[in-house]
Amino acid sequence: MPRAPAAPAAAAAAPPLLLLLLALLLATAPPPGGSESPKGKQKALRQREVVDVYNGGVCLQGPSGVPGRDGNPGANGIPGTPGIPGRDGLKGEKGECMRESIEESWTPNFKQCSWSALNYGIDLGKIAECTFTKMRSNSALRVLFSGSLRLKCKNACCQRWYFTFNGAECAGPLPIEAIIYLDQGSPELNSTINIHRTSSVEGLCEGINAGLVDIAIWVGTCADYPRGDASTGWNSVSRIIIEELPK
Questions:
Q1: CA 85, 91, 97: angle at the middle one, nearest 5?
Q2: How far apart are CA 182 and CA 198, in angstroms?
Q3: What is the pLDDT of residue 211?
Q4: Which end of the chain has fewer CB within 10 Å, C or N?
Q5: Within a 10 A sphere around the Cβ of 222, how many other Cβ atoms?
Q6: For residues 230 and 159, is the Cβ–Cβ distance under 8 A?
Q7: Which three-class secondary structure state does DSSP give residue 1?
Q8: In the chain, count of helices (H) and strands (E)?
Q9: Which portions of the chain are predicted below pLDDT 50?
């Protein structure tokens, strides 16, 4: 009768490590009915550790613990090193050139010339003059003549009172003048129609250079009209007022 084939040696023989573990368990087992000594407990713990190692060290994970409290804020860290400089930006548009101008404060500059009683009876020519010092070339001059004026004649007549600046009438922009016209004359020059009225001749003149300026008031005729008998400054004060003004 043929024999059954023998089991492989690897299957019949127990692994040497398993046999060693069983021997340790038997040698350290407490006697029946006896209490386990402290040394025995320690050996049993070591045996369990050995078994755990043999089984691959796989342990079941227990439940998660309660989250801990937040810790105290930490101290400020060390300042970091400066970063890399950035790239240049795009070129801007060309701006307008602005030049700051510093202007001097304006100082008033004026003058008055006056006469108690001119009683000037000429019909053509200069009546009075006043010299003024102009401080700036880019300024304007305001001039004023105030005094009594009179005109009489047999027939229609016209007289003109006007200012000159260094001998020439104002051209910036126009002459400064005043006129008196009569279209119904008196029968005689010495008639009772002889009215003297305080009047004024006033205006602004530009374009006059700085320095001394001779300013005068004149009397003359009107265009296309005959002259009459003129009188200026009768029995009253006459004056010329000059003032330099900024433009």
A1: 125
A2: 17
A3: 97
A4: N
A5: 15
A6: yes
A7: coil
A8: 3, 9
A9: 1-2, 4-5, 7-14, 50, 53-54, 100
Distance CA 22, CA 52 (A): 14
pLDDT at 90: 86
Bond from prior residue into 2 cis (ω within 30 degrees of 0): no
The widest CA-to-CA distance across the chain, in whole angstroms, is 194
16-49 as b/e, with b when 16 or more CB fall inside 10 Å? eeeeeeeeeeeeeeeeeeeeeeeeeeebeeeeee
AA letter at 132: F
Q: How far is CA 27 from the centre of its chain?
A: 102
What is the C-alpha separation between 27 and 194, in angstroms, rounded?
A: 166
> Which residues are paired to 244 by β-bridges?
109, 141
Q: Give residue 209's pLDDT.
A: 96
- In the Cβ-directed half-sphere of 216, how many Cα atoms lie within 13 Å? 13
For 51-87, how does the pLDDT look when each residue is reduced to its tens digit (9 = 90+)?
Answer: 554 455 556 777 888 888 888 888 888 888 888 888 8
Tell me how far apart the alpha carbons of residues 242 and 132 are, in angstroms, rounded to a whole number: 7
Q: What is the CA radius of gyration of the chain?
A: 64
C-alpha count within 13 angstroms, C-beta hemisphere, residue 115: 19
pLDDT value of residue 10? 45
Which residue, chain included where needed, has tokens 């003032």?
A: 243
Those residues with Cβ within 8 angstroms of residue 124's Cβ, 6 or more apart along the chain or in another chain = 219, 220, 221, 227
